Amino acid sequence: MVDTVLLAVGPGDEDRSERLAEAVLTVAQPADATVVLVHVFTSSEYDEVLERLEFDRTLEEIDPDVVAARHSTIRELQTVFDEHDIDYEIRGAVGDHGQSIVDLAASTDADRVVVGGRRRSPTGKAVFGSTAQQVLLSAPCPVTFVRSDDSTPGH
Fold first, then answer.
1. Among positive and negative, which fits the CA dihedral 116, 101, 98, 94?
2. Per the database record, which ranges form the UspA domain (predicted)?
3. Do 135 and 8 meet the contact criterion of CB atoms below 8 Å apart?
4. DSSP for 83-100, written as a single string
5. CA distance 95 to 44
6. Which of 88, 76, 86 is nearest to 19 (CA)?
7. Rounded to whole angstroms, what are the CA distances from 148 to 19, 27, 69, 120, 122?
8. Which of 55, 84, 83, 85 has its CA nearest to residue 69?
9. CATH class entry, domain 4-147
10. What's the rounded Cα separation, in Å, for the pair 105 and 40?
11. φ, ψ at 131 (rounded to 5°)
12. In sequence order, what DSSP letters do the residues of 39-69 get, joined into one string?
């Protein structure tokens, strides 16, 4: 039985948010599972986002969950899950993308992880990308990989 689905999104997932939502709905909806929407930032990405979104850095430490909730792809997915009456929570983390996703999958007791990636060149097809590959190899549960819609060979 699937109780928790962790959906990890990042800056490159705007083009596949609909496909990511479909993959999650396929798993979560029949099981009435909770979805954990996750955005992981490296330290430099986090600092850049805080500046771009004009967070007041003089306040106490800014919660990564709050920053993640302002990400456009997270907001798009919230709308879809609200329309389908799916329970979700939003989590943000700062650290290595792959390891942070794996750690969050373990700490949330996820039954499934959904992660996106891009189509690779013919020589790179065996490698999904460092983040997706790390999650596929290290997650404590099954992982669904959602490829980008880019149908141009070599991209």
1. positive
2. 1-147
3. yes
4. HTT--EEEEEEES-HHHH
5. 10
6. 76
7. 8, 19, 22, 10, 16
8. 55
9. alpha beta
10. 12
11. -70, -55
12. EEE-HHHHHHHHHHTT--TTSSPPPHHHHHH
Q: At which residue do the structure tokens 């979805």 appear?
A: 35
Cβ neighbour number for residue 128 with a 10 Å cutoff: 21
Q: What token pair was written down for 29?
A: 């909806």
- The residue type of 127 is V
Contact 88, 34 (CB under 8 A): yes
pLDDT at 53: 84
Instruction: List 60's β-bridge partners, or say none.
Output: none
Tokens matching residue 80: 């879809």
pLDDT tens digit at each of 155 positions of the chain:
899 999 999 877 888 899 999 999 999 988 899 999 999 999 999 999 998 888 887 777 889 999 999 999 999 999 999 999 999 999 999 999 999 999 999 999 999 999 988 655 555 545 456 788 889 899 999 999 998 765 444 44
Per-residue model confidence (pLDDT) at position 124 = 53
